[in-house]
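Summary for the steering committee. The consortium agreed at its last meeting that each partner would contribute one worked example illustrating the joint modelling workflow. Our contribution is presented below. We chose a case with several input lines so that the handling of multiple components could be demonstrated. No manual editing was applied between input and output; the record is shown as generated.
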Amino acid sequence: MHELRKDPLLNRWVAVMADSKAPGEYNLPDDVKESGCKLCSGRESETPSEIAAIRGNGSRPNEPGWQARVIPSANPILQIEGELGRKGIGMYDKMNSIGANEIIIETPEHNKKPEDMGFEQVVKIVTLYKERTADLERDSRMRYILIYKNSGKEAGAIYSHPHSQIIATPIIPKRVKEELDGAKQYYAFKERCIFCDIMREELRYGHRVIFETKNFVAFCPYAQRFSFEFWIVPKRHSCAFQDITYDETEDFGLILSSLMKRLGAILKNPPYNYIIHTAPNRIPRRDHWHTLGEDFHWHMEVMPRLTRVSGFEWGSGFYVVTTSPEDAAKYLREV
Amino acid sequence: MHELRKDPLLNRWVAVMADSKAPGEYNLPDDVKESGCKLCSGRESETPSEIAAIRGNGSRPNEPGWQARVIPSANPILQIEGELGRKGIGMYDKMNSIGANEIIIETPEHNKKPEDMGFEQVVKIVTLYKERTADLERDSRMRYILIYKNSGKEAGAIYSHPHSQIIATPIIPKRVKEELDGAKQYYAFKERCIFCDIMREELRYGHRVIFETKNFVAFCPYAQRFSFEFWIVPKRHSCAFQDITYDETEDFGLILSSLMKRLGAILKNPPYNYIIHTAPNRIPRRDHWHTLGEDFHWHMEVMPRLTRVSGFEWGSGFYVVTTSPEDAAKYLREV
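What follows is the complete predicted structure of the assembly.
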């Protein structure tokens, strides 16, 4: 079984795979091999059995007729069965690699990007994100649910078929904890949500805003890490993505599909990642994170991968932005 | 002038370049263009004037005859002239992009890796690292000096000529501050240096140790981020790299050149980064970081870049290791 290990210095967890790859098994840089795509419609029998799907009338699970589909990962990092088994080993900490890895297949056709199929397709994907998050949150072993998308091999994608992923982890990941802590600290100081304040500041200033809809604002953050990075933040204060309403889901699909089309147009379909940061699981947990309702605010971060991360960033956590967020927002707004 | 901006949520600084690149100027993934290498011996007049060098008898600055050479970066992120000018702007913080960026040219010849030229060449490079760090530390505007190397375009290298870089920053970078805080916390709890404890634990257990010399231990860390990552830690407790003795410098050159040869052999010259983490600047500063003498311990982290970082890692700070550190150490030990 894979194992989770904790870095004693940085309190960061890593997953160490049970069967080590030999040095010769690393396919260096340029090769995502794909011999026929199993995520395409018509090859349902070759994937693990589906967990959820949005399907046309009359079509049956694990058969064609779906518009978007969720399957378990074929090579999961975390596995759903078992106990956490957290323990010390010498001066170190470890636990079993318990959790869930799911793949959201975003379209039945290999070469269709969801944003080019009309915003309704993106609404279906967001609906599946919501359903799966709400379902996984019920597992008391899970502390966090992360939705993310890798598009393009430079962004770490393992399939070229449009897909995104959900991972449920038995710990609150370090990067999330930093955001939670930062937001909590700001709230303690100001008694206001930092995301609400940032959103107001951005709308007042205007130059970093790409556009807004009834329920969402999209802007390039003031101190972005990646050139052309942007965030989508809901106007209604809410800590949990899965509490999104029906109206908001439609509106989120609209703004997300429009932004992805704009990004693809100005940067010629760049590799990118996006992630949704939501509060840690609330059910059935009732611990100190439960106060997060007021000080955290769910949002999506979209990160185009236009340059390579170097030793400078790895060593410092300090990033260099070659297109200012003000200019990036202008390009994305005016395209 | 470029500007430094602070993320209000994560307290991370980023550098925003003054002249924004347009979307069409991003050379996507595969192209490091190099029309003749200016770092090669014989083209000294085409580089900025050298800051330091190790030269054969009788050779003069900015002429051939050098064995290793330091020049200012031609496209610096941070510039050496000016005031910090730290100020607020709305709810945000910024300052001028003050600092230093230097390039260490590791060999006069383009196609010779320093580790293949005998460990004496690596000793020369380490000597320049030490000299430059000691010199830059005297600038009271600088808080931190980071030495790093990018080798291979997948690791962010902008030249294919062997080189490393030094950057001096007016803030303590986030990633470094996390390490300092982690080490301080451990020290408060145990009254021992965490790096000394880790080194003892690794030597006791043995399976993650690659090898040791008189003054250094090289091992794959228990919770590594990157497969085949390893650390080189000095046996003598010392917070500052630039306090390395003459004997230790020789020994460090020896262990580093041996390890880089091993890494190159088993993984066929993979892209990699390395960084040196040392204490923040002590001169002329006398603030709370000054207590670091006891709780921090300088070291080098070497990170092969065998897989691509995806939305999962960006969103979570959680890494997946596909070759266990025990197996990686065995490969590196036995090659």
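The first strand of chain A starts at residue 3 and ends at 6. Chain A touches chain B through 94 residues (CB under 8 Å).
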